[in-house]
Amino acid sequence: MKMRVVCDTNILISALIFPGGNPDKVIQLARTKEIDLYISPFILNEFERVLKEKFNYTENEVKKRLERIINISTIVNPKEHISVVTEDEADNRILECAIEAKADFYHLRR
User: Fold this and answer.
1) 35-70: b (≥16 Cβ within 10 Å) or e
2) pLDDT tens for each residue of 80-92
3) Could you list the residue range(s) of the whole structural domain that residue 77 is in?
4) Long-range contacts, stretch 55-64, CB < 8 angstroms, 24+ apart
5) What is the tens place of the pLDDT at every residue in 93-102?
6) DSSP string, 18-77
7) pLDDT at 106
């Protein structure tokens, strides 16, 4: 059985910006189907927002990056709402995705 993994937006961005680094290696494992990568609409929306606002990607560039992530991932829609991380409410959305995906591993970058 393959490991189920959820990455936060920072990991997805790092994989894009720093090819060959550990975040990129995780994405490569998903691409080669050695792990199962799970994402949620929240993660996709945040990834899109960061690419546009912080990195000034064009609409077309954002679309290409989103498609690449979607093509190697399983999208889940978390049913459970949690609020255990008080420092950054968005981290709760990552945990919700991990719970819904029954993830073996998730990463919240600080």
Assistant:
1) bbbbbbebbbebbbebbeeeeebeeeebeebbeebe
2) 899 988 788 888 9
3) 3-107
4) 55/13
5) 999 999 999 9
6) STTSHHHHHHHHHHTTSEEEEE-HHHHHHHHHHHHHTT---HHHHHHHHHHHHHTEEE--
7) 66
Stated pTM of the model: 0.90
Task: Provide the number of structural domains found in the chain.
Answer: 1
Structure tokens at 41: 């609409």
Q: Residues of the chain with pLDDT > 90: what percent?
A: 82
Report the distance separating Cα 100 and Cα 110, nearest Å. Answer: 22
Output the six-digit token pair for 85: 């991380």
**CATH number assigned to the domain comprising residue 91:** 3.40.50.1010
